[in-house]
Q: What sequence folds into this?
């Protein structure tokens, strides 16, 4: 489905996790371009702030409460949208979290939460929207993946695993939905400073507070230094990602994947050119991973 910007005011977009970071930037940009945007999120405070901004700028943007972890919340949110719009033309699955810890240290409870939001939450919303798109014989679904969807640094096993799962699900959906005129696109950002880093630090705090008792203490310290260095160097913004999302939405024949940031471009080529052994060596050097004496 090509979204013609000249008729974009007839297009309805539902975005999950849209009250902060990449989702918020995307919601604002699309509304500025004339799309009718439903920005979903859990935080009442953040929804109120976005609603105020929309009123001030006179944007066709409204927020709705939607928790991707809850079947009832998803169904209520979808009913809310469809009561106000004839269809959902574009779904942007953006909601996600990041638990940072080694595979061994991360509790099973946190493993389940990671996948509940980043994988099952995406499935919950997508499965709810698909019957309506199939009935219309058109639609576009954008999945917010990550460079971590094809490369996995240490301490990112849970987050990267969830994004790898999202990539596999999207690959299947592209084929399964082709007969119905529904296109599935992956967006793969590199490092962009948003609220997810602060949220990740809070979710992962127990592991870093107790890292002295972990056999991976040195790795946690190096990872923290790496994150701080990436933050200092990062020049990409959520608005940069939003513009890529818009391009993927409006392309007559969208690519299966769109990278965002220079890191995404470099990482993509490294993945193609390097063997797994060579890629491991790069990560070991970056994080100072050596065999214990």
A:
């Amino acid at each position: 489905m090509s979204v013609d910007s000249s008729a974009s005011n007839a297009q309805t977009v539902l975005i999950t996790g849209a009250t902060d970071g990449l989702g918020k930037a995307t919601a604002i940009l699309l509304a500025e371009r004339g799309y009718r945007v439903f920005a979903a999120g859990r935080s009442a405070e953040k929804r109120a702030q976005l609603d105020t901004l929309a009123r001030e700028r006179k944007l066709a943007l409204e927020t709705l409460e939607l928790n991707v972890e809850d079947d009832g919340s998803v169904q209520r949110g979808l009913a809310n949208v469809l009561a106000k719009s004839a269809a959902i033309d574009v779904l942007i699955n953006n909601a996600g979290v990041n638990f940072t810890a080694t595979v061994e240290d991360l509790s099973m409870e946190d493993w389940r939460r990671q996948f509940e939001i980043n994988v099952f939450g995406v499935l919950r919303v997508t499965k709810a929207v698909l019957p309506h798109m199939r009935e219309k014989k058109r639609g576009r679904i954008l999945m917010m993946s990550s460079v971590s969807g094809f490369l996995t640094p240490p301490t990112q096993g849970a987050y990267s695993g969830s994004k790898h799962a999202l990539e596999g699900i999207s690959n299947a959906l592209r084929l399964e939905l082709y007969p119905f005129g529904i296109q599935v696109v992956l967006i793969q950002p590199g490092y962009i400073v948003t609220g997810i880093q602060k949220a990740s630090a809070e979710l992962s705090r127990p592991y870093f507070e107790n890292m002295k008792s972990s056999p991976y203490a040195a790795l946690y310290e190096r990872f923290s230094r790496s994150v701080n260095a990436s933050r200092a160097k990062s020049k990409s913004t959520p608005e940069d990602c939003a513009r890529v999302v818009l391009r993927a939405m409006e392309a007559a024949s969208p690519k299966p994947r769109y990278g965002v940031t220079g890191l995404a471009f470099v990482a993509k080529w490294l993945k193609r050119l390097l063997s797994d052994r060579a890629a491991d060596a790069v990560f070991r050097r970056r994080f100072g991973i050596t065999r214990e004496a």
